[in-house]
């Protein structure tokens, strides 16, 4: 729940920032000189890119949460079997062992979104965020193709 609140607060702050930057861009354009119009247009590009990025991430998180809810309802969420140190951090060897099992499971059933979801969790636990994101995108795509 704390992660959702943090995400919502961060998104709200970003939206306020985009509005402020966008208003400054419009003020520059209203000045009417070639230099201020050019700078104003350049400034308006930043909030447009930011809004697109925020939308894509929000959509990704929403879809991943939907998959998690569906998998939980089926009783297929991965069980936390990772060993941790005294500070609560996941031990690398433990994460690697679970990852190897999840990878083999995915190789046995490459068309099942559930295995890709569990592989994404294993990548995340192994601190490989880019591959975790790609695996989750694959799970989302497979789930959507099935529907």
How is this structure best described in words?
The chain has 147 residues and is mainly alpha-helical. It is 81% helix and 0% strand. The protein is built from 5 helices and no strands. The protein has helices at 2-31, 34-74, 92-108, 113-125, 129-146. The protein starts with a helix and ends with a helix.
List the helices and strands and how they pair.
Blueprint: H1 2-31, H2 34-74, H3 92-108, H4 113-125, H5 129-146
Helix pairs in contact: 1-2, 2-5, 3-4, 4-5
What is the average per-residue confidence, as pLDDT, rounded to a whole number? 92
Q: Give the fraction of residues assigned to helices.
A: over 70%
Overall SS class:
mainly alpha
Number of helices: 5
String of helices and strands: HHHHH
What is the C-alpha radius of gyration, as a whole number of Å? 21 Å
Low-pLDDT segments = none
N-to-C terminal Cα separation, in Å? 28 Å
Query: Would you report the number of β strands?
Result: 0
Describe the main β-sheet briefly: none
Strand content: under 5%
The outline comes out as elongated
């Amino acid at each position: 729940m704390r992660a959702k609140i943090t995400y919502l607060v961060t998104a709200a702050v970003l939206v306020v920032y985009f509005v402020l930057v966008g208003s400054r861009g419009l003020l520059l354009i209203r000045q009417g000189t070639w230099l201020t119009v050019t700078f104003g247009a350049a400034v308006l590009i930043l909030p447009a890119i930011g809004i697109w990025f925020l939308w894509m991430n929000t959509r990704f998180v929403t879809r991943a949460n939907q998959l998690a809810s569906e998998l939980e309802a089926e009783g297929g969420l991965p069980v936390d079997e990772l060993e941790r140190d005294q500070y609560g951090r996941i031990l690398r060897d433990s994460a690697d062992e679970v990852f190897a099992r999840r990878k083999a499971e995915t190789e046995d059933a490459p068309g099942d979104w559930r295995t890709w979801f569990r592989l994404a969790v294993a990548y995340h636990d192994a601190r490989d965020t880019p591959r975790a994101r790609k695996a989750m995108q694959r799970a989302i795509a497979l789930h959507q193709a099935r529907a």
